[in-house]
Design a protein that fits this description.
The protein is α/β, with parallel strands linked by helices. The chain folds into two domains: 6-144 and 280-306, 3-Layer(aba) Sandwich (Rossmann fold); 147-277, Rossmann fold, CATH 3.40.50.2300. Helices cover 42% and strands 19% of the residues. The protein has helices at residues 13-20, 46-61, 79-91, 108-116, 130-136, 147-159, 178-194, 208-221, 233-246, 264-268, 280-297; strands spanning 6-7, 35-42, 67-73, 96-99, 120-124, 142-145, 167-172, 197-203, 227-230, 253-255, 275-277, 304-306, 309-311. Strands 1-12-6-5-4-2-3 form a seven-stranded mixed beta sheet, sandwiched between helices. A four-stranded parallel beta sheet has the order 8-7-9-10, sandwiched between helices. Strand 9, helix 9 (233-246) and strand 10 (253-255) form a beta-alpha-beta unit. Helix 6 (147-159) packs parallel to helix 7 (178-194). It is elongated and about 65 Å long. 51% of the residues are buried.
Length: 317
Amino acid sequence: MKSGWILFGRGLIGLLAVGLGLCGCAKTEHPGKPRIALVMKSLANEFFKTMEQGARDHQRDHAETYELIVNGIKNEQDVNRQIEIVQLMIAQDVDAIVIAPADSKALVPVCKQALDAGICVINIDNKLDDAVMADKGIRIPFVGPDNRQGARQAGDYLAARLQPGDPVAILEGIHTAMNSVQRRQGFQDAMEAAGMEVVAVQSGRWEMDVAQKVAASILTEHPGLKALLCANDNMACGAYNALKDAGKVGQVLIVGYDNISAVKQLLREGKILCTIDQHADRLAVFGIEYALEVLEKKTTPADRQTPVDLITADNLS
């Protein structure tokens, strides 16, 4: 059964709302429908293409309710371009920005600019850094999954198929992305609890080709490796390609994260053990719906947790 939403109230958030510029909705309202800007990471990644399509489908079904402006960047390391896109949305005076930040720290200042302009800002997918937001005197609500919990689910599922002391490696995403940090932590939590030996933690930068090279190097350095835990499915596919090249398919288990279509056949065939579905087709919609709610009701926003589900060959749809 898929889990539902969990709404978290924030203790003093109402008292702090004015001082911290929370989801600044004090601007002069536009006549007609609100304009929502969706600012995503790399549209070369199938996950974000699915996110985009989900958002467009939702807007089409609610065309009388709001207008949607969709933007993405070329790759997940193009942080400066994402900052420029947010600045452009501020200049266009949109009512709300729903953002999946490429960098959890670097995007905070420009999001503050949006708040200062009276624009509602909702953070999805990759959480903005709490310490940097506190330093800027702002609080932006995060609507998204508990990435650490999701990675822990996948790691626990893997651990049940290994022996204590088995060597494993982790392929994380970009170091400055909070979802990468949280997924690495979740994998490490599971491996530590099961008594596995984590022999390597390296970045595949979310990309298949990079991950393939990194995985190949790890396999050479640790020929007895039993598993590769990958922080997204692109990297899991790269890890699988490295196993093929090394003639080790079936000897090393692979865990992914995102449940993109590219891994489904590999899951069916047992070449990837499991992945985590954070519902890419709904993730932007969750943020958009919350932005519309805040704009309409003038509520003080709080974080909302969205579902994560373990996907294996047994429950793959």
